[in-house]
Design a protein that fits this description.
With 176 residues, the protein is an alpha/beta fold. It has two domains: 95 residues, no CATH class; 77 residues, no CATH class. 25% of the residues lie in helices and 16% in strands. It contains four helices and seven strands; from the N terminus they run βββββααβααβ. It has a five-stranded mixed barrel with strand order 1-3-2-4-5. A hairpin with a 6-residue loop joins strand 2 and strand 3. The N and C termini lie far apart (69 Å). The model has no long low-confidence stretch (mean pLDDT 83).
Length: 176
């Protein structure tokens, strides 16, 4: 049996019929899309996809019959040979700890900072006790969501979860 390579011409005249696995993921169209369009993630989450991504991951479900409208949910077919494991529960570098990463990116957005700056501020707090000064009034979720923050931080950084003492390990203060 010869290896099947999607997206390439069949060069071997002895190629036989076969069945293949294709890694798929549910995503949401951020714009109008056609079946087969090459797409990747947009913005700060791992749900919304479009054609102008800096990192194309695959194609719109080529079996759809109609064009997609922004906001519609569909399956992203990942490019062949990009997943790192395939057991009907596959792995792909772009989907690493997606739930925790998405939560942290939303949290950072609410604090008007980048995801990268949020992770750096948490690291500075853990390593040096440094408090980060927010340029805005501190949102209530900074206080209510710190245990969730530390859980998601531990998932994406692969570090043990931070024990939450009386001060909830809040490393933010407002500029006021």
């Amino acid at each position: 049996m010869h290896e099947i390579k999607l997206g390439e011409l069949v060069e071997n005249p002895n190629q036989q019929r076969d069945a293949i696995h294709i890694a798929v993921a549910p995503v949401v169209a951020a714009e109008s899309l056609k079946p087969g369009d090459h797409i990747g993630f947009l913005g700060y989450d791992t749900i919304h996809v479009g054609k102008d991504s800096d990192n194309l991951l695959g194609i719109v479900d080529p079996f759809l019959k109609d064009e997609l409208k922004a906001g519609q949910r569909f399956l992203l077919f990942l490019y062949q040979n990009t997943v790192t494991g395939m057991r009907h529960h596959w792995e792909h570098p772009a989907f690493v700890s997606t739930e925790s990463e998405a939560w942290l990116k939303e949290f950072a957005h609410d604090l008007e900072m980048t995801y990268e700056n949020l992770l750096a501020a948490a690291s500075e707090y853990l390593n040096n006790g440094e408090i980060y000064c927010l340029p805005i009034d501190t949102p209530d979720r900074v206080f209510s969501d710190m245990p969730k923050f530390w859980y998601h931080y531990s998932v994406v950084t692969n570090q043990p979860a931070v024990a939450v003492p009386d001060d909830d390990n809040n490393f933010f203060r407002c500029a006021c």
